[in-house]
Amino acid sequence: MNPMAVESYRMLGSAMALQGEVADAERVLREALALEGAAAYSQATLGWLLARSGRRDEAEATLRKLEAARERGYVSAVAFAILHIGLGNLSSALDWAERAYDERRGWLAYVNVNPIFDPLRNEPRFAALVRKMGL
């Protein structure tokens, strides 16, 4: 409804990626990054997609961009968790998810329904985090 809503692009790109529509998902996520107000979540979601589609070097470059941005200002721990999930770094993803909990990041409330978090579901630390959140 709002062609300038970065969040809409990110959610659409995520859904396309989860359905295997990698090229379209990448296009939509790159369009999100071109919009005013695009931030770390969009960058992380693109990195997650790149990693999932076998483009690890590009995903790791995206991670380095987020790390550099974190040196200049705040970057949500959820963004790092998402990107580490894509890279298969589940321990690091859980470290960041736990940090997001400590920071009271709102996006973490979706861990039980967001399929991006599926790779963490069998991890005892994930189950403990979900219990701690009361979800």
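Next protein, fold it too.
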Amino acid sequence: MKADTGRLQQMLLALLLWAKGVRYLKFGLVGASGTLVNMLVLYLGQEFLFAVIGPPRDRLYASLALAIAVATVNNFTWNRLWTWADRVRAAAPGEAGKQRLLQQFGRYTLASWLGIALQYGLTLWLSHSLHYLLANVIAIVVASVSNFLANDRWTFVRPGPG
């Protein structure tokens, strides 16, 4: 009987670790889609939408800001609807639902910006001893793990009762 309980516990732990891995895979796929959205919006902004702004370097500020904003909304939406769908409560009617959604979006944005800062700083630091491309890849992996953990434990925290 005791051996069966231990085996069941091991199987449940393995299942939880697998599910966590699947969630991280979903998070990575959403991030990849966000990269594509970012690149597309950056191109459209730079080449068409903000073409009236003087030199290309000057319009890059507006194009990049728009690309980051659209990609952030894209990633938040897909992570909320897919990656952490099991943790999102049904929207409350009226202002309470809007407030909860905005609070969650604020947390997501903050977690994303912290990840961006971590990637930036870590890339610069590691590039002193590694090739800058390798340094950036390592920093992206570290930042994605920290981003995932921040969103898993803070932004999309498992809702309490009620």
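About the second fold: The mean pLDDT is 89.
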